[in-house]
Amino acid sequence: MKQMNMQTYFRLSLTMLVLSAGLSSCMKEDFNTSEGKVGEMITLLDVRQAYKGSDVTLNTASLNGGTTISGIVISDKDGKNLPANSLVLQQTAASSNSFTDMTRGIVINMTTEPAYAVGDSLHINVSGGKLGRVGGNLTISGITAAQVTVIATGKAALVRPVTLGKLHSTMEYYESTLVSLNADAVDPAAGTLAGSKQVADQTGDAVYVYTRSAATHASEPMPVSAQFTGIAARLNESGNDTFNTKK
């Protein structure tokens, strides 16, 4: 089986969003990587939970006193497989029990093209940003370069193995994070990676491996069977949140 590690996006067209109550109770209450005042840091898990189905302006009121998120850049600006001005940030927040560590991700849409590399560890002051679904994916929009601080470089983000069955049933846990998937092409004669190519693994409905035509790896051949490593994302071309939500 071939291993594909280029910047790939798994896109789901019909996903049931399953939210589990009480997830935040598994977090360490003193999780705070900030060098600034106590309480300004907020986890990506808590930011995502601030979204209730409509756009939210981010401030201390909507974020329970928080202003700043942290995480590792998992999107490759040089791979050219992202919308303009966007990056994807992933955070694994440690708990007292490593089995309950929380990994979440989010798309950041900036006012200018981001210059941050894969593995850059960032602190982002999200005050004044807008939290909403863009193209189906939870996104913080309106962030300027002045709101971003590079804390470190060359950091490795967690890659979680997943099956399609698990991805479909618990997409809220995996959206905008790195996943690894063993799957076969639905169409063995799919040609190159460019565009949306369906893959399946017999555990759930097929998903699309999506590669923009401008991506540096778009001309690579689509494998018949491979281990794909990429960012899990939703497919919603209208940009509206049309997914069913079960709480």
Automatic annotation (TrEMBL):
Transmembrane segment boundaries: none
Keywords, in A-Z order: Signal
Coiled-coil positions: none
Presence of keyword Plastid: no
Pfam families for the chain: DUF5689
Signal peptide: 1-27
Segments forming domain DUF5689: 41-237
InterPro entries, per database record: DUF5689
Protein name (database record): DUF5689 domain-containing protein
